[in-house]
Design brief:
Layout lengths: L1 H25 L16 H18 L2 H32 L5 H7 L1
């Protein structure tokens, strides 16, 4: 009985080793990247200022600092939405589709 267990463990280990080796050899590995749009050079200072204003609001309760922070965040958000829309339109055009405004005329 002991011999059968040893054979079983040996067989399982051989199968496991074979599968691991095959996976290393034949399964491609990739690294994923986030799809964050690149901000133009004027935006990082805006982000820094926005954080400073928010910290000031938290520290002092200054509502004007909070309003200014919100305005900066909205500007950056609008830029990112426009950037994503431009990239989507470029992708559609590269596939041979018509621009979205021309598709609306067909409706």
């Amino acid at each position: 009985m002991e011999k059968e267990h040893n054979e079983l463990y040996t067989t399982v280990e051989q199968i496991t080793t074979t599968l691991k080796n095959a996976a290393k050899e034949h399964i491609a590995t990739t690294t994923s990247t986030t799809n964050k749009p690149k901000l133009p050079p004027q935006y990082p200072p805006m982000l820094k200022r926005s954080k400073q204003l928010y910290k000031e609001y938290l520290r002092t309760g200054n509502l004007e600092a909070l309003r200014h922070h919100t305005r900066i965040q909205r500007t950056i958000s609008n830029y990112q939405k426009a950037y994503k829309l431009r990239n989507w339109i470029k992708a559609r055009l590269s596939l041979g589709d018509q621009p979205p405004d021309q598709n609306l005329e067909a409706l």
